[in-house]
Amino acid sequence: MFDARLLEPFWLSTTIRGESLFFVDRGDGVPVASLLFEHVDRLSLTSATGEVQFEHGLDFVVDGDAGVVRLTPRSRIPFATLAALYPAHEPFVLIADEDDQFHRLQAAATYVHPPDQWRGYVPRVAALELPRTLQRLATAQPLTVCVTGDSISEGYNASGVTGAPPRQPPYASLVAAGLQHVCDSQVTLNNFAISGWTADHGVADVARVADARPDLVIVAYGMNDAGYAEPKDYAANIGGIMSGVRADSPDAEFVLVAPMLPSPRWDYPVLERFGAYRNALSQLCGPGAALADLTSLWTDLLVRKTHHDLTGNGINHPNDFGHRLYAQVILALLVEPEAFLTTK
To answer: What is the structure's pLDDT at 82?
Structure first.
């Protein structure tokens, strides 16, 4: 069942629901995790699956002013040590997989906080870039959305894909459900994303996207490209996808997604390319194309959060909370984000 509260834009809402936490003992014997906001109140904590409700004082204590949660010696909440996460004889984290193992090591926090604390990236409605899409949504016309991308867009590590509770859909499905919920448009989603793909795969697959006669195409590559593709080559491939779709569907509009940041301990990508990719995508934007800048958002989130908080595998896939962030940013380009507020 669709839960509209999942799509409340975190930068506007004063209630955070299901923020993911991964507790780490950094050597002092006290596992700790930071919340996204400070000056928090009425915090509740469950397992990431939602199956276990943890108790304040028994399982955890909260420094509300600092926005920090610490586990008690008797806590039932899972945690990891730095030594377990990063064994000296291994180049990378051990507990990284495509099932629900990592998910079950996380907790989910719900709390309230004062307004206007967020100082990071905030998406804006793309009225100039996506006028046709916004007009169709405003008049409740049908909208065909296509997604071309990699494993993130395919939905990896969303609990609805791994089959673990709470079985939350991945971001593409959340975007479609959110649009239909707020705009009353009949949204048809065609998700062509495939794990391991890079933007050159997207170019080769462009006929399949074009054949769906999309009104809006979400183009989301970069995580795998960053291991080998220079920004100019990446941009050329993204441009090739756009021109290929437009050849058959000249009115199609595009959301270009600058991806989340991977763990810096992953030795595959060149990390500097993520910022360069975002800049290259911004150069492709204008009438008919808008930027969903998850790269900037992730940079700002990591001021307080960790990669283990935000990923479903510790490396390069968002967890449930991360998939909601993707959806919230994309939806904010298409609909006034206040429309998703359930607590105002």
So the answer is: 85
* Token representation of residue 182: 């707020």
Domain enclosing residue 62, as ranges: 4-112
Sorting pLDDT into bands at 50, 70 and 90, what band is 95?
low
Residue 118 domain-assigned? no
- 106 and 171 in a single domain? The answer is no
d(CA 259, CA 148): 13
Return the CATH number at 199: 3.40.50.1110
Q: From CA 19, how far away is CA 61, in angstroms rounded?
A: 16
Residue with tokens 């991360």: 322
Do 100 and 164 fall within a single domain?
A: no
DSSP 155: T
Write down the pLDDT at residue 94.
Answer: 46
73-82: pLDDT as tens digits: 999 999 999 8
Residue 51 shares a structural domain with residue 107:
yes
Strands 68-71 and 32-34: antiparallel
